[in-house]
Every structure is written in C-alpha cells, then in structure tokens.
C-alpha cells in the first residue's frame, strides 16, 4: 500500500531504530501542559443540560458556572469574590443576573459586574467596583463552547474542523468526564498501535477484521497531522509464538484506510482528500473519517487527572438519509462505538502511567503529535490556574 | 433608628468606603488561629453522652478521652505514651482508672499518673514515672466543659455569658460537628449581612419580615462587641434590578432589634441593657438576645476543617413558663431554628473559601470581631498541636 | 522458674531501669526499614489463588503480577515499560507469555523478555531489547514464595524455620492483608507484655489461665532470638488497685512455657530444645512452639501502611493424627486462634502510633528484636522502591 502524501509534508524520518528517551523532556511545552492550552474554544455540555439553575463545570482547572438566560448561556468564574462562595449555588433573583446565595451579591451575566448588593442597599459603595471573570460562550451543534483565554477570542470556526463550518450534516454525540490526564486521552486517540490489540474484543469490530500490524507515517495537512498507512498486514507469523491475526471466517475485510479511496464516498468527505483516516490537531481534536461519516473526539482538560471526553459523529446528509443516521446512531453507534468501544480506551487512559516510557515503532504517531504541539507553541495553562476547590 | 451606645465605646470609624485588603494580614493573631485559642473553657458534649465507656473527642486539634467515674467526667490525652494506642479504646479495669487495652498500663483519672502496669507486676519500675496529660473538666447546664490551656485554669464563669451565672433559667440545646474552620462559623454568626438573604427562605422566618438592608455599627460592652442598627430598611428599589424586600402580606414585622426596647421584656434580659440583639466575645461565643429568650452559639475548634457547633437557648423563667418553654423548644425551636435555620449557615461555612476576599460595608461586623481578637491578644493554639491521628 | 539458657547467649543486660529514648534512633537500620529487607523469600498467596488470570500483589512496595503457566507460577514487575499499563490486566495470548492489554507487547514468563510485539509485526525492532523485571518464585507447602532481592537468590530453605525442611508435617494456614506497618506486626508478635492483657478476653484462652506478669530474658538460638521466662506470676496484688489475675475457677493452668519440658512432647519439637516457646528471626518470622504443634507468623511488608500477615500451624505427624489435626484446624483453630485471637493483634497494629514511645521492662523483647536487626545488617528496601500506583 502506498500513500498520496507529499514527502515534503512528512513530519520527518522513519521511526528510529533506537527508542527515544524515556521521559518527556524532548517536548517541554507538552510536558508542562497538564492543564492544556489557553486561547481556545472547548465544548463542555449540551445546551439542554443547562437550565435556569446554574451548572458548575471545571475547565483547564478553572471553576466555571454556566447560567442560562432565555436562549443564551453565560459563563462566569464560579467564585464570589466576597467570601469565596460558589456562584453556581446562587439564586436567579433578578433577570439577567445571578445572586450569591450568601449575601445576595448580584452579578450581571453579560459582563460579570457586581450590579447590585441586595443586603447593602441601593447606595452600596462596592456596587460596580467588583466583577467576576466571564468567559466567552458560543452555542453550536447543540453544544456549549467556552473560550478559556486572554483578550478577544478568535472565532469558534477557527477551532472547528473545517468541514463542520459550511456543510449540512446531522450529529450524534456523547460527553462525559473520564479519569486520566487529557494528554493520555489525546495520545490514545491518535495512537497507531493499540486498536489492533485492545479493541479486537470490541463488539463494534465483531464483524470487521482489524489489521495485525501496519507500517505508518504521519503527514501534515494544514492544522492537522494525518496517520497514513504505508503497509497493512492482516496476519503475521510471530517468531516463537505463532500466528497473529484478527481474521475470522465471519469477519469481513474493512474498507481502505484512506476514506477517499472507497467507492461511494460522501462528497464532503471526499473533498477533504485525506491520505489516511485518522488525524489530530490542537488543542486536542481527533478526526476519524470513514467514507460516509466522521467521528470526532475532543479531549477537554478538566484538571490534571480528569478529561472531558466529547464524542461526536457527523453524517453529511439531509432528509431521509439524515433521519436514518440519527436512528442508527441512537440504536447502535451510541452504545457500541461511543460506548463499549471507547470505554476500552477510557480504561487504558485511566491506568496508563507515563513517563517513564519506552516507545516503539508505531509510536511515531504519538511523537508526531507531541512535535506538532511543540512547533505550534500554544499558550500553556499554568498549573496555578487550578482552582483548589471543585 | 438611633442607638443608645456610648460613642466612646464604639470600635471606631464608620465602615470604610474602600474595602480593606483581600488577605488577613491585618489581623495576624487571628490569621494564625486556625485551631483557636488556648486558656479557655469549651463545651464539648452533654453529660449523658459519656457513660462508663470512654468517648474520644478532638478539641483545638488535641485528642482527648472523656471518661466518667460516678458523677464526674475526666479528660485525658487520648494516647498511651507507651506505644501510642488511644486510651479511649481502653478498659475500666479498676475504679477511678483507665487501662490501655494493649498492655494494661493503668492511669489514674484524676491526675493521669501511671498508677499500675498490670503486665509488669506490682514492682514495675515505670509505675509513677509516666503520666498522660489531663484537662480540667467542669459540668454545667448538663454540658461537659474542658479547659485547654496551661497552668491553673480561671473559673468557668469567666468564660460564660454573665447572665448565665446567677440567674435561674431553662435550656434547650444541640451540639454537633460541622465542616469548616471555626473562624468561618464565628464570622458567619456575627455577620451583619447574610441573614437577610441566606435565611429569607428559612421556615423560622416564614411569618416574620427580615430587613432588606441595614446600616450598622459595632460597639463594645465589657468582653463583648455588639452590633447596633443605625438604620433599618424594609425595602429597597435596587437600580437597574427592581424592588428588593422581604415583606409579604402574611408576614408580620419583627420586634425592635434592641431587645430592651420591646414591651414585656424579660427582666434579666432587660438588665443587660444591650444596644443591639447580636453580640460576640472570645473565645468564640455568640449571643442573640430576643425579648424573652437568648440564643447562644459556641464555635469550638475541632481541627482546621471542623468546628463543634454548640447551640443553646435559654429562657429566664421558672415553673410553668419554664416547662412551656421546654416543650416549645422540643416541639419547634430545635427543628426550625437550631435545625433548618442554622443548617443554612452550616452550608455556607462549609463552602466558604477565604482569603482572598473583598469585604463590603456590612462586613464591619466581621472586621470588628477580628480587631477584638487582635487587641485581646489571646494565646493562639499552635498548629503543631494537631494530633496526627483522630 | 529458672531457665536453661546459656547466659553467654543472652542478648545482654537485664532491662534498664530507665526507659530507653523515645525515638528509634538507636536502631538506625530498623528505623529506615519501613518497607522491609531485600534478599529474602516471602510467602504471598496460596497456589490455588493464582489461576490462568494474572493476580497483582504488592511486596516490599513493588507491584508484582503473579501468572500461572501449567504447574508453575511466575512473577513479573506489574508494569509494561511501554506506557506503564499493569501487566496483571493483560491477556494470555500465547502459552508461556503474557501480553499487555494495550498494544500486545508480549513477555516471556520465564525471563521477562519482550518476545513479541503483536502490533508491530514479526520484525519489530524493539523485540528482544526490552524486558520486565522477573522475580524468583518457589512453591512450597501450597504457598507461593517470591524472592525480592538482587543477584542469585539463596535457597528458600535458608529462609524457612529449620524444622520445616526435612520433617513430615501437616499444615493449616491463613493469609490476609492487614493495616499497619510490618514492624508493628513483628513487634506485636514477639512482644512479651501484651498477651496477658489484650488477649485475656480471647475465646482461645477461655479455658486456660494466662500469667499476670512475667520476668523475661531473651537468648540467641542460631538465626533466632527466644523469649525465656525467668519468673511467671499468676496473680499480683497491685498497690492501690487490687488483685490482678487471669485465674478463674473454670480455667486450667497452661503447660510449661518451654515446650520441651512438657510430657508427651512431639519428638520434632523436642529436638529443637527451645528454652522458651516464642522466637523470632529475620526477615520477620515468628515461631510459637507448643508441645504438639507450632504456630508461625510471617510479617510480609506490602507498603508502609500494610502488612501481609501469613499464619501457619504445623503438626509433625502423619496418618490419622495428621488427618485429625486438619479437621481440628478447620473446625476450631482457624476461627479461634488464626481468627479472633490474632484479630485483636491486628486491631492494635492498626491503631499503634510510635515513635514517640516509652518502653517498659517487658519491652526488652522488642528491643532485642531491633538489636537483632541491627547486628544482622540486612539490606533495607529503599522507600523509593514504592511503586506509586497499586
């Protein structure tokens, strides 16, 4: 199997014969980014999860209260500056505001300004002189997106896969908090090696063969890096051990790994002209493109030991086909793929414990991702940002 | 509304227009007193809670075993000096003593001396050469009071509200351990601001209006400081928000805030001549005086994150009136006031998280309390006093 | 009561009149040995507890996966060097190997070598270049013994009580993990003082008197030290307290404490010629010899706060007598002695909290044990050996 990738785009040499060092000192930005990167938009909850009652979330270590006013969701630092009581425990005393439950300090949802201090009267001297930090919020695809960063945010579109900007599609999805640092989740997502072994027991693959092993390279595509198969092996005679294969009489062979090569490719997906079916980009977005749908994962840092795992599946269709996909998603995909299959990933992300580590040939996908982070020089969220009470 | 307080007694200027600094460095003694103050008497349990079996408590970080011998309660450091086993796990082998369950080291309850070492015979050389620390204990109002301090204790009376010394009264009360540092509990107790907002949903206030906001000052009264209302506002038109009031058609207006001003004041309470109904003193005693009864709270430090919350309610009557009060206490006050009402306080004391903080006008009550601590120069319990196992 | 011990063998002077210092600085090796000693064999589980599925254990702070292949048990460091996933979560993909569940790194059970990397093909460059640490394993008495140490292990026999090497016997036993450091468990085992008090409520002693107090010395016997009674007192008039005794009308007096002095002594036990019935040796083995059976305890360090407590009881008989013992063990000894009796010890080992400590006359048994450790100069397991995830 060959590849369409432009060699000049390649992230570099073939995997080293010598495994790289055991720690992460070669990737200093990445090494320090246990809380992720500022100046990005992150999906956190579904719109319908936030009603009149405020909802607390933690994002990149920061405690945030999400509050709905009519059709808009607002995000404020979840700490009243007065005595540190979480605003998410507060009351909706007046429209467009939230009041701390303790002394009725009342904040404007749009700018976080202290617009009324109920227990200190209309002439309260502190009114207007205190505010809580607010966060830019967008609502898109039924999800709430929060910008954690400094200064004016760039458009949400800049942090979305480009095919989700102007096309029509239907979505299914799931969001949950999982144990483990977000980087383990991201590395697991783009990891070339594990699926063939860890997931060969997944129901999702019950009727589809997975390769025994591959030779892979990684190429650049705009903001993304893409895993490209150079060789795919369906069985291997392992010296001293025996035959290693996923082939079974009841399993059929999967489609080509570059989605554009299949027949009947969805035109939106074909237009992406992807040399391989798995790609990743900052601040931690995975795209797995099949000929007729795309699966996405966002690895949203919560704190150093938890990641918000947002899975979306998009089908670029309308009408009956879109409805059929929705039905299929709810009936099967949600449970088999976004459920049992990725629960195997969650298990590994939880028990993983690196560095130290010893990398092997397929881990060139992981090191390519780390190098992408280094050369992108994103703004690291400092660990001091971690709010001490969650 | 004006006040009877002597201006010379006032704790000082009107509240600053500028909020004070955000940390507690202006109150260095207070800032370091996370375990409270030595050389004071503290209420810990009801007498009937300690029977023949020793009971462990933690007080100002020190682990203490309470042991009953006939009608007297004794308090010993809850750690056998031999191998560190808690004496509260021990046996009552011989009258007037407690024996460590491990090797039968036997201590005299009155002075803590090792008066017998069962497993080392009558001539044990270590007998009489080791002792455990004992704590002075008093029994008053059905409560067990323990003195944590050095040298001879002052009389318990010195640490009691003066009206509880020579008068006749009936009591109802509750004691429990709550989350949060004792200082948050004390500040919450004397806090001018929060009741009007936090407690306006309390059943206890279902039929009584609370003010919308007040102007307050704080004056000195012997060992106490007293909150005095200079203005009481029952409703306020908050700019940009709307009307803020607690008035409802079914609620009646409360009595004047200075208990002496009401009609039919109980003579004992009238004799206190209090300029306001809420006062506080060291080492952390709150007094809320109504015309016919007084509610007290003791904020007894357990460790840095827990406070023993002792609530008493006293009515200075005898005979039928006293019996009626007891009934009323058990039927209503215990559940509505000492229960649901102060559970709202417990909630805030738990979630509070300061410093940093930004104080507002009504917080002059809190800063007056902190200043009272500073100028009283109490002996701070060092954090090293914290016994590592509880 | 006198003793047969040779004074030249004694561990030294009679107990000091002055209690020794309160910390452990006199025993620096012991003081640093919170994780025990390397270069020894330790019992961990019963053979039948390890089947085809790997079993994780922690030993001296090291995480170990036990894996069965046919009749043999193998022990490997429970961490795949690739990304730190526990091998005990792995699959038995090929005979004689274990495969990490994540990427199928496959290790030879006998030498820990990476003998196959399923997801990297037959020519994986890393194959044979990585290995996981393996531990020598022996199976004896139905137990799995693991050697934690460096270099070639000495024979398991060297770490067994000598009478268990060449004689025939039947065994009953129990193994469990208990709270508390292994040194507290060992000290509790050889402790002269506590049994007379702590255990005088044990059902096991319901019909047997225990002494009130003893005078004891400690003598050396090869690798062991032995507690020898110089005086045994069955009752004592404690000054100021009263009579202290375990005698009751329904209890019978026990056998002489030196097992060789009883009538009808089992010949194997008689041949040990023990001057007292309790002895201890490195790395933490207790032997309690009765005329007809011997009870053993191994205090196997797990981590700094947990000890694997292995109790064995041996009767040196064959045929019907052996069968009768097995029945008696299952019907009574297991519940009364290895159960309720030593559960009292477990309770104390858990709540013990030393240093600081103040030792008394009978603690010469404990200090003799600590001195035995010092003069044996065992290799201390460094606390850095503690694997951070268990």
Considering the chains and any ligands shown, give keywords for the structure.
homotrimer; 390 residues; Naphthalene 1,2-dioxygenase Alpha Subunit, Chain A, domain 1; Rieske Iron-sulfur Protein; 2 domains; 7-stranded antiparallel β-sheet; 19 strands; 2Fe-2S (chains A, B, C); Rieske 2Fe-2S domain-containing protein (chains A, B, C); Cholesterol_7-desaturase (chains A, B, C)
In short:
Chain A has 390 residues and is of the alpha+beta class. In chain A, 19% of the residues lie in helices and 29% in strands.
Main sheet specs of chain A:
7 strands, antiparallel
SSE ordering of chain A: HEEEEEEEEEEHEHHEEEEHEEEEHH
Oligomer: homotrimer
Largest interface by residue count? A-B, 33 and 31 residues
Query: Could you tell me the number of beta strands of chain A?
Result: 19
Q: What is the fourth-level CATH superfamily of the largest domain in chain A?
A: Naphthalene 1,2-dioxygenase Alpha Subunit, Chain A, domain 1
Number of helices of chain A: 7
Strand order of the largest sheet of chain A: 11-19-18-17-16-13-12
CATH topology of the largest domain in chain A: Naphthalene 1,2-dioxygenase Alpha Subunit, Chain A, domain 1
Percent in helix of chain A: 10-25%
Low-confidence stretches of chain A: 1-20
Shape of chain A: elongated
Provide the residue-averaged pLDDT of chain A.
91
Q: What is the CATH architecture annotation of the largest domain in chain A? A: Alpha-Beta Complex
């Amino acid at each position: 199997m060959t590849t369409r990738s432009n060699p000049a785009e390649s992230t570099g040499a073939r995997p080293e014969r010598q495994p790289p060092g055991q720690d992460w000192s070669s990737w200093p930005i990445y090494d320090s980014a246990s809380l992720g990167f500022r100046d990005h938009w992150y999906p956190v909850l579904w719109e319908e999860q936030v009603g009149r009652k405020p909802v607390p979330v933690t994002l990149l270590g920061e405690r945030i209260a999400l509050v709905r006013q009519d059709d808009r969701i607002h995000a404020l630092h979840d700490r009243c500056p007065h005595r540190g009581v979480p605003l998410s425990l507060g009351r909706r005393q007046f429209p467009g505001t939230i009041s701390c439950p303790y002394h009725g300090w009342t904040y404007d949802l749009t700018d976080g300004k202290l617009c009324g201090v109920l227990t200190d009267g209309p002439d309260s001297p502190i009114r207007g002189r205190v505010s809580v930090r607010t966060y830019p919020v967008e609502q898109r695809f039924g999800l709430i997106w929060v910008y954690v960063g400094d200064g004016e945010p760039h458009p949400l579109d800049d942090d979305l896969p480009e095919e989700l900007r102007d096309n029509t599609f239907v979505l299914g999805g799931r969001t949950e908090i999982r144990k483990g640092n977000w980087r383990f989740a991201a590395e697991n997502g783009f990891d070339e090696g594990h699926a063939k072994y860890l997931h060969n027991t997944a129901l999702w693959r019950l009727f589809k063969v997975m390769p025994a092993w591959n030779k892979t390279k990684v190429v650049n595509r705009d903001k993304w890096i893409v895993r490209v198969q150079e060789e795919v092996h369906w069985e291997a005679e392992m010296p001293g051990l025996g035959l290693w294969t996923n082939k079974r009489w009841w399993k059929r062979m999967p489609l080509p790994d570059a989605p554009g090569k299949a027949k009947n490719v969805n035109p939106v997906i074909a237009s992406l002209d992807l040399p391989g079916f798995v790609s990743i980009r900052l601040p931690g977005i995975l795209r797995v493109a099949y000929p007729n749908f795309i699966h996405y994962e966002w690895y949203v840092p919560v704190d150093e030991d938890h990641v918000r795992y947002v899975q979306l599946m998009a089908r670029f269709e309308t009408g009956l086909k879109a409805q059929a996909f929705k039905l299929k998603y709810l009936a099967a995909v949600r449970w088999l793929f976004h459920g049992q299959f990725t629960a195997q990933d969650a298990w590994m992300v939880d028990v993983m414990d690196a560095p130290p580590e010893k990398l092997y040939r397929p881990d060139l996908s992981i090191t390519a991702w780390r190098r992408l982070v280094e050369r992108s020089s994103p703004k690291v969220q400092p660990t001091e940002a971690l709010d001490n009470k969650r």
